[in-house]
User: Fold these one by one.
Assistant:
Number 1:
Amino acid sequence: MLFRKYSLFAAALIVAAVGCKKSSDFLDAKVPSDLNEETVFSDSARTMNFLNRIYTQVQHSSLPVNYMGVPTDVCTDNGEVSYSGATQPGVYYNNGSFTPASCPFNGMWNDCYANIRRANRYLSKVSGVPLSDALKNRTSGEAKFLRTWYYFLLWRTYGGVPIVPLLAITDELNLPRNSYQDVVNYMVKELDEAATLLPLEHEPADYGRATKGACLALKSRILLYAASPLYNGGGISSLSGFDAAKQFVQADADPNRWVLAKNAALAVINLNRYNLYVDNTQPGYGFYKTFLTRVNNEMIFCFMNTPGRSLEFLYLPKSRAPQSNVAYLYPTQSMVDAFPMANGLAITDPASGYDPANPYVGREPRFKYSILHNGTVWRNNSGTYSAIYTYFMAPNDGMGSDPSGYATRTGAYVRKLLDENVTGSQGSTEHNYPLIRYAEILLNLAEAENEIGGPSEAVFSILRDIRRRAGIQPGTGGNFGIPVTANKDALRDFILNERRIELAFEGHRFWDNRRTKIAEFTDGSPEGKPFYATKITGTEGNWKYELIEQEKRFFRPEMYYVPLPQTQINTETNLVQNPGW
């Protein structure tokens, strides 16, 4: 996270890492050369900068450029990698050729533990730092939250991981993995404690720091994951090395875990601090603006940047971002098809009004604000507005137009999070990249309510709120296309698809497909699942759409669990590898 007070971030950059292993790089102090433990924690500004440094990697696995180099969406049914080179992380993940030595997630282990060590150092020193008692308490809450955030990233990725004590700076790590449930209990306890130390909101100068709401919202996500099938008695027990009682899952299926998830979501809602950003002066406009409005009540925890055009540079096609030479992510045809029509009905529903000869006409507003398709009008680098064309061999942006692969491979580009008045080289906007937002909490509650009691007005009311804000038409009965006569299983599928649409390209789909055990159907298969693209030919007003196979993706049961980095297994002799690896 970057703060509204940008100078804090700039100052934090000179305070580098506490190593995961050694003491000699306590601050990696190159500038200024006199930084050490004593000089940092005896100075209030340097103390705060040390804390600020821990915020700078909270976006791991969510933003387009992270330790993988690509978004996790490219490893799901949401997204396609931008080019097909064999060394591209998304490519060797999707073809199943990675190993514990080459897994795209390997960078997470050291980065997260480095930040956990930083948080530990801060908490071990805070009692003696030259800050007021009130600031000591608040920053202790921030450090606890941040430490838990990095444990969450590790736990979500690997299962049970070592919980690191407040080690001396010279100590080496060679700890065994704690059990899955140990880590859940630890994170929940830490978040409850942090919530008592943190305010509901900060003064404007500190906007973006962890709050009580962020603690409770992260707890909501953790308990939703812990209740989900993969971890709630549904582990892949056929894999070699599987031990459900320890690292990987909770061995027993306990329905009460859904109750805990429900109550955690309600705790956030009952703060009465957050709400959906609603603006339907144009249908769904609030959905668009929530990502471009730095301060708004939907955002609970965010990674924020100074105003600019960084995401436009990464996502827009070459006609709008010529110097970028690559859009980092292309939506799959499956992602395009997931969005319903403006009446809320799926495009497969005969009553929806979908016309395959005009596939982009009459779709719900979130489609417009998430998918950049053939004919989308956007600001160009001359300062005027013109259509972007993605048809086969269209200059610059069309499928097949770049032999290096730096043009859409699916017939579309990502539009979500981007400002239509900004290009990759001109203009500037506020970017508000959500790590947790209120819409997620509502969907957490809807999912838990359905798992506990099946279809109910409690579930439908939440879904209506989500779809009303999206600008979908109420339709007959005012149900916004929600299948109110569905059974529990069908409603579960509907909720997961709604989550897929609402949270698209925000870093959720990879983990949702795994925790719910649908990845073997959505993201690949042992024999290779075909993924499709739309090849567009013809001319304006007479376009032809042809579905073509783009690639096959592979998914094996062991891919439900990400392997620990082989380097850690080799050097940390008390660690046990995940099953199947």
Note: Residues 446 and 459 are 5 Å apart (CA to CA).
Number 2:
Amino acid sequence: MTGDERLPHTRGLSTWTTRRWLQVGVAVSLTVLGLLGVTGAWILGRTASLSSDLVDVRSPALTTSIRLESAVLNQETGIRGYGLTGTPDFLAPYREGVADQKVHTARLVELLRGDASALRDLKTVQDEIGTWQAKIARPVAATPPGAPSPEASRRAATGKKDFDRIRAAMTAQQDRLREERVRARSDLASTMRLRNAVFATIAGLIVVLAVIVFEALRRGITTPLERLGADARTIADGDFGHPIRPIGPADLRRLGGEFESMRRRLVRELDFSEEARLRLDAQSADLKRSNAELEQFAYVASHDLQEPLRKVSSFTQLLQRRYGGQLDERADQYIDFAVDGANRMQVLINDLLDFSRVGRVHHALQSVDLGAVVKRTLSALSVGIEESGAVITRDELPTLVADPTQMSMLWQNLIGNAVKFRRPGESPAIHLSAERDGELWRFAVTDNGIGIDPEYAEQVFVIFQRLHTKDTYQGSGIGLAMCKKIVEFHGGTIGVDPDYRDGTRITFTLAGEPPEAGLGDADAREARDVTPAG
């Protein structure tokens, strides 16, 4: 066969999957084991058959033949003694011999069933015994006792010849039975030797088959998987340029090919990630410059802008006190507008400055007892609480690792809003709750105020977004935005409970310890939140 003729067969085997190899291997193994089992069963059956024939037929047949000969000898001895003496006691061995003869003959017929030659020998023995009994034994036994039997003397020579023929027939029978037993022993010994050889061969074939199976598993499954695992570990250790060269059955090669495709995609993604990292580094540098400019803005807002604003506010207030009522009504109105605008500008700049400092200036993390923080907050808001008649209840609040200043700002804004946005003519009822939620703490500030429509649940947390005019409710629109920034800085979330309809319920979560990433990301969030104000 040429190489071209072998190629299609090789290609056919190369497309075999692990399952097909296993199916073929199992089928071949089961076939071989089945043939070995059938051969072993046949050998065992043959051995058992020969052993049974030897033990249950040949040896008992020879023994029974010898006993039959002994029974006939007992008959001859009894008849001879009775014929010579006429004593009846000599008939007892004769009668016992006759009974034993019947038993042993029947036993031989049973043992030799199916063996024609052995049954012919038995028939010859029976005929000779019958002839002797008819001519000698029964006539002598029938003579009266007390005196020697004349029949015995008269038939002595004939009786001797007949009995010699019996001996010759039984000797021939026993010789044949001995030959059969020897042949059976020889067959049994040969079969046992064959059995031992066959079982040794079976054991050898099983060992060879096991070696073939293990070697096939090693080459077809274990080695390809080990090589694939080694390649995967090499790649996992950082050598992403290491190629995967799959071997083994078709499905394992496909698996290796998929790993190789995944490696190539991973290399492309890593290249893209590296480019993205470089771009991110550049953006980070820009962000640092932006943060520096933001800090400069905060400094300007806290010093350079506030100083002229204080002068404007001071002089407009002085103008109001000195010339109030001396000018016309429109002039007094203009002065009031200027004073109010200057004051609101002052409040707005202070609030914006506080907002920009969250996560940048105030980041002294320490163990904070929120119960004590709320107590101080209620003291700071005591005037508004007393004027509104607010009733404030609270659960036991935990101790967390947080920035104490930011916690004060958080609770002050939430409680202050609950007091501010109350229903006309109704005293505020405010409840502060806290419960454990896995690794977080979930807090809620619930009031019976005017509430927040679900459509504005996200808008209220955007800086400078107000749902009411300044004439209805005072404020800069920064409070809830600052609360959101504080909560996110501490690794939590904040929102409006849309299912609560009897007022407003603000829920938020705080971690027992804020994530470290929060400190590094604070400047980025600050730049994102404050930039629109510029």
Note: The two ends are 87 Å apart (CA to CA).
Number 3:
Amino acid sequence: MEINSLDDEIELELDENERARYLLSYIFDVILPQYGMAKRKSQKELALSMLRALQENKLALCEAEVGTGKTHAYILAVTIHNLFSRSKTPAVISTSTIALQEAITKEYIPQISKILLDHRIIDKPLSFVVRKGKSHFVCDSRLKTYESSIRNHNRPEDQGLLAQLGELWREQENYLDLDGFPLTPYVKERINVSKCTEFCPHSSYCRYASYNRRWMSESFDFQISNHNYVLADVINRREGKKKLLPYYQVAVFDEAHKLIDAARQIYCTCLSENEIPKLIHLISPERFVNRNSLRQIMMLCTDLSEKNTRLFQKTAGDLIQSTQIENISRTIEEDKKTRVWIHDLIELLEKLGRTFATEKTDSCGRVKSICNTAKSIKDKLNVFLSVEQNICWIEKTDSGVLEFCSLPKELERLLYHDLWHTGVHSIITSGTISVGGNFSHFKRMTGIDLLLPQNRRVIEISKPSPFDYSQNAILYIPEGMPFPDIHDEQYIEAISREIVNLIDATFGHTLILFSSYWLMERIFYEVKQEIQSYPLFIMKRGRMDMIENFRRSGNGVLFASDSAGEGIDLPGDILSSVIIVKLPFPVPNPILEYERTKYDDFSLYVKEIITPGMIIKLRQWFGRGIRRETDTAVFSILDSRVGIYGRYRKEVLKALPDMPVVDQIGDVRRFIVKKKTEEYF
């Protein structure tokens, strides 16, 4: 039903829930169009489904493809729900990317707040606060110390840095947030809050401590955070530790396709080979008064160092010298020697704790810090003794450091208890959390499938994109491509040749997505020799600034990894070609190895775990191409497995929006020329 006037409500006898739904419909049908927003039936239906789920305490699984308007939908649904339920608690909005958080806080909430105020639906602006980890904020004490050390050096080249540091002393709340300042990671590490504690002697006048108390106590309408922070909070609540968020009854998980990755990070226990050496460095025996313990401390430090090296070196074995390019890891099996080495380290750490318990002087809190660090390492080591309950592996990081990792085998059950079985009203949304409208894979991986079907607590909604892909996009799948093999020179040549041809055909304006950093760099330098007409950018690890450089170029070509395949918005003429070099199958790792053991039939494992994971990521990557109704795009998949006789052609084409499929580069040129001509006239 379309609502034309709120006066219609007078004619109806409605309960509170019905009145809330009536008002929400009126906002979409009458109010939003007054502000230049098009009426979208699917957006209105999405918002009403979200509101009904909140009213009935159901879990809403909402897939809304690009252009549906899901952010407006859930902000309005939550606001109207809280208005009618008279809730005084904030709603949590959890995202995966900073870009979405900024859009919510700078665009969506202010816009919706003004509209609702204009129509007297609310009597004060919607309020929000962005919650992040401590390391994102400045510590007054450390800032003062660092500033003094810079001034003492009295170097002319430091004047610019001092001016930037001076800006951080402003009173406004946003000047605490280091993310908004162009400081190097090194400088941020020197002045952030990550090393501070609630026992800090400066806490009574610390700006961060003061704002944090307000963030936790005041009644904001929205607490906006990321998946990692929200998961860390629910774990703290379960374990009886300090809460990171105030009490809340409504949670929205946007960009929910990244929730599984976030859970694997937060629930994972990691121990680096550098942690015990750092503990030994912290000890510095000569600093302590009790000289009777000095010899014993030095012996313990020597033993810790030797046995730590033995544990990591022996367990890693040939992993240390591995020439594998990326993703170097190996599952740790049940092993008596490894258990003995871990027990040896635990025993030494316990001795260290008992030794420092005799220290009577601790003016700087160093003894407490040592004991806490030793206990933390010991707790981690105990986790690695529980191979039956955990997936345990050792990996070599990008920097070459060895790390023990452990993830609970029943992660899905933990997520079920920590997130979905708490009574919190939850909306879970993303453009890609299903495979062809089937949410089974996502529900299985997140523990949602453990909710009993007879409770009927899960509402599933899937809304397609309103964009006309059939007219504004084509899919190019060249025939005769070699099988993907990064060690095959013919494959490298074929990929490079196709990319050069596509860049020329689309006049630049291209995003090229890779699932391997090594392959990305190799292809980049091959293509660079052939392309001089358009600026080329390569987005290596941590180089998010390359996206802005690409945006400013106007007609550039960006070589990027998965980080550019999700959460970035490049509308209009900036981007008109998305090239997917290889289907984004999940990389083999110990977690997938464990998942494999759950299946007797390998083909069923591929069908239920591997292929759905690939399809969901592929759909995310495709979402970069068309961001507005007037956008046009050429999508290219350079993977032979999607060719005319390819194994995955049917699944891939079924999962993507309907659009013409071509296999000739000439068709791409004609499409681009036609669209450019239409835009011009």
Note: The chain has a mean pLDDT of 87.
Number 4:
Amino acid sequence: MTGDGKQPRERGLSAWTTRRWLRGGVAISLAVLALLGTTGGWILTRTETLVKELVDVRSPALTTATRLESAVLNQETGIRGYGLTGTPDFLAPYREGLAEQETRTAQLSALLAGDRAALADLGTVRDAVAVWQERIARPVAASQPGAPSPLAAERATEGKEAFDAVRAALGEQQERLRVESVRTQKDLMVMIDVRNWVFGSIAVLILVLTVLIFEGLRRGINEPLDRLGADARAIARGDFDHPITPSGPADLRRLGEEIDSMRRRLVRELAFTEEARMRLDAQAADLQRSNAELEQFAYVASHDLQEPLRKVSSFTQLLQRRYGGQLDSRADQYIDFAVDGANRMQVLINDLLDFSRVGRLHNAHQSVDLDEVLERTLSSLSVGIEEAGAVITHDPLPALVADPTQMGMLWQNLIGNAVKFRRPDEVPRIHVTAAREGALWRFTVTDNGIGISPEYADKVFVIFQRLHTKDVYSGSGIGLAMCKKIVEFHGGAIAVDTEYREGARITFTLAPEPPETAVPAVVPQAVPSATEQAR
């Protein structure tokens, strides 16, 4: 590190990252391949040009020159025979030779276009043939048939010299064409050898380049990554003191340093976590003691507290029966207050005990047919349902793995609330539905009662919270709080459908099987008084 605490800047090739190495390697490889490809392309083009020149020019030109010579020889044979005999049949080869001469000459002119030397040879041949034809062939052919031509005998020596000149010109032409054809063949063979050597070199270079690339990747990337992976696996197996040695390109070294920094931080975090775990164990022990005290409180509330409460209630009821009407109206009112308060305290204690037992005493999960549970609940509420004239319907309900007692308490509170909070001038109608929603079942309990305002949609699930006074609707305000606790204990959620305006609609979800860890039961703190508005 430098004096200011910063890491020293890496220089040269050691500062190259993996991306830079890859870019450099790819650039060099592409440059070499481009050079080889250009060379190979030029060689292929040159080979193709030579093949085309040999096949399309040199060989056809030599063949055509030979045929041109044959045509001229046919003319000479015909003229010589006609001049010696005067027989017209000898003129046929002469005329055919003339036609073929014109054809072959035109072909040679086309084939040798651009070759000045060859075209000059062709011009020499054409001139020599023209001299021979003008001095010998045409005059002899114009002689009268039937007798030897006197002109042939007179110009025999001249004719021989003229045709020797034709033969010499044809020979020089063919020799030049033959030499050019041989040269082209040699050039082609040389180019084929060069092509084979170059493409062999390209193959070797590509092979060497491939080996270099793979070796570079192995040494520069694979091996550093393997070492980094081995160090990481050692740390993952629990050896947090195992150091990470960075290697390879700059970015891989930085990655190794960052992982090692994370390892050191993890060691510190583990030490902190271990200390926190020890504190948590101590808190868990305190929580166990607190739960034991809560259990003791539940026992006391269910036995010791209820016994004096029953005495207070009994004696106040005795006072009401014995002295009712004998004292003044204020005394009767006080006695009524005492009896009502004792009875409500009895209900609150019983409801509070039921609330605290959810998930603690009632925790026997088994397959439960919710149709049967609902029917038993309706049977237990039959008196209140008949008095209200309520009409209760439901869709087919599924079977879940749940606590049957808690499911009964859930239906009892939801159906009981729907019946209780009905409209005075309307027949209560309650409908229960169930539908699969992903991994959960969604249930709804819909009624046509007085409904729940949206601003109280959350408040109704708080324990002891009421929306009406006890004079209007009876109850302790613990029913929906108990429903919320039961639903959450079974891995679901419960809420009020604020979009429904024709009454109240409670919707909740339940898991087909309960979650692995149950929410521990805790006795809630009953802070609101009985005079608060709650449901």
Note: The two ends are 70 Å apart (CA to CA).
